[in-house]
Amino acid sequence: MRHALVFFLLAFAFPTPALPAQPALPEVGTYDQLLHAIREARAASEKRVEQAVDREKVREAWETGKLIDEHILHHKERADYGKQVIERLSADLGMSRSELNRMVEFARAYPIRAPARKVSWSHYRELLSLNDSKERDEVTQQAEDQSWNRDQVREEVRRRQHRTEAPVKLPEITPGPLYTYQVIRLKDRLKIDLGFGIYHDLPEKDAKKFKEGDIVSVVGARLPAGEAGSPRPLNQGGETPPLQLAEDAVPADLFTYNATVTQVVDGDTFHALIDLGFETTLAQRVRLRRIDAPEIVTADGKEAKAYLEKILSRNQGRILLKSTDLDQHGRPIANVWVQNRPVDQELLDEGLAVRISE
């Protein structure tokens, strides 16, 4: 009797949680009604799954950023360690540096735990551009209340930024002259350095005219910086075209080429056919030097890729490209111009990439 009384009292003190009410199912008297109802049930299910995935992505982003941040803090006495960690993780995880940096920024913006909100990771990637936490919460609440998509959040973020922040402007850069090279010595032979590890033998007739370290250009082909689309200097009958000493050129002017884009990979990477001169064309994957675009698997990444394709197609794919360095994967990184305008600045202006500190 005593046990029965205890159970009775507990039932009132701790009632069993009510199960969520099941939605009323529609009439399915005809086959068409059945088919329509199943399709609607499937669409609703897919939406719930998508929302669950979005919530889990937010948690993953926060946990990843928190782990990286705590690791960096553990080694804070080591100069530039954070940058080195991000670069290594980018290579090992196959994620862009910008995505990893945003995850760290996300964890720092919410230091206690991942925010339990109804917006997705793509929303938070836009919201992180707002440095003021109160303003960020205001936009988050608006996004929830009005069911904003990512583009609507981006528009509101940009509107608020334009009131308080100056746009990111990259330093002015200009391409060097085309078909201009340095003479080097390789295995006791003077050669013309075409770039990308490719060399052209300096003919015997020119060996007495030029010495190691001289900067030379093809006669009649050394155009002012920025003029693309010139006739390429062909070898006459297999002979090296006439060369002249480029007395006003310096090493910083070298390695500017005409190129034609063949494929865009993502928002900061593309394939191109690069005209090195001397009837030499190189097919090469190239990455933009000064910016980092979102991963291609994200909606932002797809938008950045589409915009880069738009830019690079303006002149039938013809571009000017200047490359002197390689990235961590051994691929060229380059400054690129289309119709004399730097490509990276346009992507920054559209909010489709972030600047890489050099």
Written account of the structure:
This protein is of the alpha+beta class. The chain has 2 domains: 35-164, no CATH class; 180-355, Beta Barrel (OB fold (Dihydrolipoamide Acetyltransferase, E2P)), CATH 2.40.50. 40% of the residues lie in helices and 21% in strands. The protein has 10 helices and 13 strands. The strands form 3 sheets. It has a 5-stranded antiparallel sheet with strand order 3-2-1-4-5, with no helix packed on it. A 5-stranded mixed β-barrel has the order 6-7-8-11-10. The protein has a two-stranded antiparallel ribbon with strand order 9-13. Helix 2 crosses helix 4 (97-109). The longest helix has 44 residues, at 31-74.
Number of strands: 13
Percent of residues in beta strands: 15-25%
Are there runs of 5+ residues with pLDDT below 50, and where? Answer: 5-15, 224-231
pLDDT averaged residue by residue: 84
Terminal-residue CA separation: 80 Å
CATH topology of the largest domain: OB fold (Dihydrolipoamide Acetyltransferase, E2P)
Secondary-structure element pattern, one letter each: HHHHHHHEEEHEEEEEEHEEEHE
CATH architecture of the largest domain: Beta Barrel
Give the biggest beta sheet: 5 strands, antiparallel
